[in-house]
Amino acid sequence: MExxxxxxxxxxxxxxxxxxxxxxxxxxxxxxxxYLSDYQYFLKNKTKKFFDKAEKYTKxxxxxxxxxxxxxxxxQLDMEYFQMQHFISHSNWDARALIDKxxxxxxxxxxxRKLTGLIIDETGSVKKGDKxxxxxxxxxxxxxxxxxxxxxxxxxxxxxxxxSMVDARLYPPKDWCNDK
Length: 180
Hints:
Order of helices and strands: HHHHHHEEEEH
Oligomer: single chain
Strand content: 15-25%
């Protein structure tokens, strides 16, 4: 009964003209475990379960100012960097099935209106160096020119005042695709 009550509460973190407008999503941490439990099935393989790491990583994203594994692990004392790195980089849980389930649930949660749109757009981040995946000299829309950047293509469902990202894919430059 308590879990159902949590799901029916509205998130107040972005309600205008309230004291909490503009605050971070810290207020939602107490509901996060309930939402994540719906995805446990996807966070495992034949011999291992990864739900505990997924839960810690997701909470770390909410609580950390800088959202990379190293900074998240520094800010959260119960997280081990190499375990988190392995979970994100090498664990063979079914990420595609998890994204698909999330997209279906998002579509079902949107209000029923005649017009629902699928918005597809790229987003780029200018980067220094070459250590992150997919970095290279390519067109970056955020700066409007070719730059050393990392680019992703995003898909978002939009319906009136509601919108949610339902998919994202890294767009690697040609030299990454041709390098075996």
